[in-house]
Amino acid sequence: MTGKPIVVVLVCALAASFFVVTGAHARSPHELTAVPAASPGSPSPTAVSPTPTQSSSPSPSPSPTPTPSPSSTVLGEVTTSIEPHPRTVRAGSPLELAGTVHAGNVCFPPYTISLQRRGVRSTGYKDIATVIAGADQSWTYKTAGRYNASYRAFAQSANCTGPPSDPAGVLVKARIHLRKVPRCRSPQPVRGWVQPKRSRERVVLQVRARRRWRTIKADALNHKSRFTLIAPDCDFIYRIVWPVQDARNEQGRLIFKLR
Fold first, then answer.
1. Which of 82, 104, 158, 210 satisfies CB 3.0 to 4.6 Å to 153 for a cystine?
2. Pairwise CA distance, residues 94 & 88, whole Å
3. What is the DSSP string of the chain?
4. Mind listing the pLDDT tens digit for each residue in 60-79?
5. Contact at 8 Å (CB) between 230 and 189?
């Protein structure tokens, strides 16, 4: 009877070892990975939280930086000259402004010319016109002189710009108009007007005598810029003068003879 319990114990031990070996082979490789034992006194391993699953919808992409178009990108410098013809004119007479464009190799036509003017009483320049340079890169602009002024020009194209030209000054003389006298009678009224329009300013009548001009009469312009002067005698050479009375115009003169 003593041998049977030993046999039963051996059989049970073999069966247990068989199940242990079989279960070990059935586990996945991840389950068989050995976890190193923590050394005494070391902190326990911190549990790693699982990474949250990202949404399947695509995130919005950043907007691209706008690329400047060729028309808005300044690649070079373009300048222009300006020359008035003539530099001294009578009020109301034609005045021509002309110039030539000077551009870099990266600039291409057409070239737009912006013209500006500054009067003697102005604090800054004001735009007066815009013209397009021709195929030879020259340009002209026609106007009429009115007051003393300074002119300048800017040149630009689709991809080039530049500084203004050097200013060019124009002097404008006051113009005196005289009504025609059909036949002189002593004393003879002499009527006329001054351009540009003035008022309450002085005009004088002078006579040529002994190679000199002598002032004999004076009058003030009315609100229409008109005057009336009295010539004492006929068959003399006279001159009407608008003296310089401010910086807007140069002196105006008109020589005539009464017959």
1. 82
2. 11
3. --HHHHHHHHHHHHHHHHHHHHHHHHS-TTTTPPPPPPPTTSPPPPPPPPPPPPPSSPPPPPPPPPPPPGGG---EEEEE--EEESSEEETTSEEEEEEEEEE-TT--S--EEEEEEEETT-SS-EEEEEEE--TTSEEEEEEE--S-EEEEEEEE-SSEE-PPPPPEEEEEEPEEEE---SS--SSEEEEEEEES---S-EEEEEEEETTEEEEEEEEE--TTSEEEEEES-SSSEEEEEE---STTSB-EEEEEE--
4. 444 443 333 444 455 789 99
5. yes
Q: What tens digit of pLDDT does each residue of 219-252 get? A: 999 999 999 999 999 999 999 999 999 999 999 9
Sheet holding 149-156, edge to edge: 88-90, 168-173, 149-156, 112-119, 126-132
Question: For the chain, what percent of residues have pLDDT higher than 70?
Answer: 71
Stated pTM of the model: 0.67
d(CA 130, CA 50): 71
pLDDT of amino acid 181: 84
Backbone angles phi, psi at 187, to 5 degrees: -75, 150
